[in-house]
Specification:
Layout lengths: L15 H32 L16 H30 L6 E8 L2 E5 L5 E3 L1 E5 L3 E8 L4 E5 L4 E5 L5 E6 L4 E7 L11 E7 L1 H10 L16 H11 L2 H4 L18 E3 L5 E3 L2 H9 L22 H13 L2
Helix pairs in contact: 1-2, 4-7
The chain binds heme C and copper (II) ion (CU).
Length: about 325
């Protein structure tokens, strides 16, 4: 029906039909009341036409039943919309615990992606069908927004922090990726493709396709983000202070991800991805209790993609 016309994007994720059902409901409600109002205007215009014999005596000016009806009915409708939309919203913004993590970096005006297997792509993202996939995203410059219309999900992508979208693609095929936040001159050209493949095709693609499409160098080979992180950890000299032994200059990083960290000022923070990112790029912002502020700030020296790899490496250490 509506989805066979080219008016609507294809439904290619587990939540697409849920979003569309809500959308159709809102659309139907709007249409129903619009038609009702127009019909009543016509009916009353005819009924009370000048010169027509009609009861024009003044109506009663209080009618509690009528008041109650137009308080209760719209309230009930609003609550249905609220409850329904909230349920979908929570599903949309909470990646399932078993979701596999992909990475995206927005940059004027392109999308850079990396799969957990280490494949790097530009403006193209290959994913297997039927797997819960979480895309952790950040921006290298301005506000962008990663939008997968066929999956009915999107999220703002901000410089200086991580946001994510998740989906489970249900249909093999090629679908749009858009930037849904005006981000400068060539915003409208910041488009890409997400290619959903059957799992066995995806495995084959991983082993055959050459890494680094669209002119990216394959310098980093096909290391996984965690492997790249391990390499960068040595390269940037992190291990000189974080070798994990007692008496080291810096705290051991194994198991820190997701843990609660006590800071010098007594505050307790959860070591989520944003905290780890800040600890690497701007370490003096939050000093771990019992340590000195000797860690250099790496802001401007490590790219967003490399920071993602370092975090993947830290997370891989249990
Ligand atoms: C000169 C020594 C030194 C170097 C080099 C260094 N760090 Fe640190 N790092 C520290 C110290 C000391 C702390 C604790 C004080 C603080 O929070 O700044 C710390 C804290 C951290 C934390 C927060 C840990 C926690 O328990 O909350 C992370 C994450 C981190 N460093 C990652 C890195 C990474 C990644 C590199 C390499 C790019 C690196 N560090 C290089 C000394 C260092
Ligand atoms: Cu953009």
């Amino acid at each position: 029906m509506l989805w066979e016309l080219p008016l609507m994007p294809q439904q290619a994720s587990t939540i697409a039909h849920k979003v569309d059902a809500l959308y159709l409901f809102l659309w139907g409600m709007t249409a129903f009341f619009t038609l009702l109002i127009f019909a009543l205007i016509l009916v009353f215009a005819v009924k009370y036409k000048r010169g027509k014999v009609a009861d024009r005596s003044n109506p009663p000016d209080t009618d509690h039943k009528l008041e109650a009806v137009w308080i209760v009915v719209p309230l009930a409708i609003s609550l249905v919309i609220f409850g329904w939309a909230t349920a979908i919203f929570f599903e949309q913004v909470r990646p399932p615990a078993d979701a596999v993590e992909y990475f995206a970096t927005g940059k004027q005006w392109m999308w850079k992606f990396q799969s957990p297997e280490g494949k790097r792509e530009v403006n193209e993202l290959h994913v297997p069908k039927g797997r819960n996939i979480k895309v952790t995203a950040t921006s290298e410059d301005v506000l962008h927004d990663l939008f997968f219309p066929a999956f009915r999900t999107k999220a703002d992508v901000l410089p200086g922090r991580y946001t994510n979208v998740w989906f489970n693609a249900t249909k093999a095929g090629t679908y749009h990726i858009f930037c849904a936040e005006y981000c400068g001159m060539q915003h409208s050209l910041m488009i890409g493709k997400v290619i959903v493949m059957e799992p066995q095709d995806y495995e084959r693609w991983l082993t055959t396709a050459s890494s680094g499409t669209a002119g990216q160098t394959a310098a980093a080979g096909d290391e996984t983000p965690a492997q790249a992180g391990e390499r960068l950890f040595t390269q940037h000299g992190c291990q000189t202070c974080h070798q994990g032994s007692s008496g080291a200059l810096g705290p051991a990083l194994a198991g820190v991800s997701g843990a609660e960290v006590e800071l010098q000022n007594g505050e307790k923070v959860k070591a989520d991805d944003d905290y780890l990112r800040e600890s690497i790029l701007n370490s003096s912002a939050k000093i771990v209790k019992g340590y000195q502020a000797v860690m250099p700030n790496f802001k401007g020296q490590i790219s967003e993609e490399d920071v993602m790899s370092l975090i993947a490496y830290i997370k891989a250490q249990k």
